[in-house]
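Record format v2
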Amino acid sequence: MKIEERREKDVVIVDLSGEVDFYNSSKVREKFINLVKQKRKAILINLGEVTYIDSSGLATLIELMQKLNGYGGKLKLTGLNQSVRNIFEVSKLIDVFSIYEEEEEALKTYNR
Amino acid sequence: MKNIQNIRLSLPSHPRFLSVIRMAISQVAGGMRFDEEEVKNIALAVDEACTNVIKYAYQSKHNKKIILTATVKRDRLVVTIRDFGKKSNPESFKPRPLKKVRPGGLGLYFIKKIMDEVKYDTSSKLGTTLRLIKYKNENRRKKRKGCGYR
């Protein structure tokens, strides 16, 4: 699993890749906690290269979303492949998160 | 050629082996011609069950033993997960309502949602055997009225 960060103006984009499971979701959480400490308001998680996510990975995303909501931030997700989308659908989280097909589309919504 | 590939794996209770478990289960389920989505879901359910063993039965101790078996039957896949840790109390297991969005509690929901039968056997002196069954589409029987146990 890899975690990379880049910036697009005020938006922090986190690119995750590989399998996110109980073994490595704590590393993802660590990254997210750092962004929350910096009070980053616009975070976009790119799951385009994520091939698997389990409940601990989902819990990490839920925690980040709730922390951001707590100080008026916005978390958005993009790039879900069919297999990851299926896991979001089974857990009914598909409607809980703001999910965009394309990164560009998601970035535009931060300015609205 | 008969396409029966039963497996038995004995693994340490370290989360780094979850990927091995997923791979093994995917191979067996794939060989049974579950469709691609079902194979991924079955691997997810078994992964979640093993994660629960690590977290709760072994309280995150990583040097304990998990024995995983997958048995191919004509109409179903039977997976057992044996641990030797703190006994489960299936009656206390309740997947969280999905309307309450919060971190945690999704693992059991996945297991019950994906598998057709989920049974905890706590009759051994030590630990728990969790038995998960997934029927092939044409033979599917839903028995999801909570966790039964012997």
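Chain A has one domain: 2-106.
Chain A has a mean pLDDT of 95.
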